[in-house]
Write a structure and sequence with these properties.
The structure is a single chain. This protein is about 20% helix and about 45% strand. The protein is built from 2 helices and 7 strands, in the order E-E-H-H-E-E-E-E-E. Strands 1-2-3-4-5-6-7 form a 7-stranded antiparallel β-sheet, with no helix packed on it. Helix 1 packs antiparallel against helix 2.
């Protein structure tokens, strides 16, 4: 999937282009599951929706793989993620013009950064 995004949350704006993977799951079955979850009591809906979104095949139903845009802190950003949607490489120029390149592990911890801090 490819989509453009613009979010304005009380003046904090995020905008960009996203490339995402979608699991090979028929949409009709997914829609039926979501519709049945909406009929559950409100306190049970969150956990049920999380279980559906995690997908039994191990891969998420949707995972952002590439994001190119601007974040809420006004930084230009290129984010590359693994097939589970976890950020692994982040290239950024912050709002003051300072560039950086970060490599992240599966938990999102920066393992290497250029320039080094």
């Amino acid at each position: 999937m490819i989509y453009l995004q613009y979010i304005d949350d009380n003046g904090l704006r995020k905008m960009g282009l996203t490339v995402a993977d979608r699991a090979d799951v028929p949409l009709t079955g997914l829609i039926a599951k979501v519709d049945s979850i909406k009929k559950l009591p409100a306190d049970a809906q969150g956990a049920a929706m999380k279980a559906v979104m995690e997908n039994k095949g191990g891969e998420p139903l949707m995972a952002e793989r590439v994001y190119v845009g601007r974040d809420r802190k006004k930084a230009a950003l290129v984010n590359l993620s693994d097939r589970m949607g976890r950020s692994r490489i982040r290239m950024m120029v912050d709002s003051l013009g300072t560039p950086s390149l970060e490599f992240l592990d599966e938990a999102g911890k920066v393992t290497s950064r250029l320039p080094a801090q």
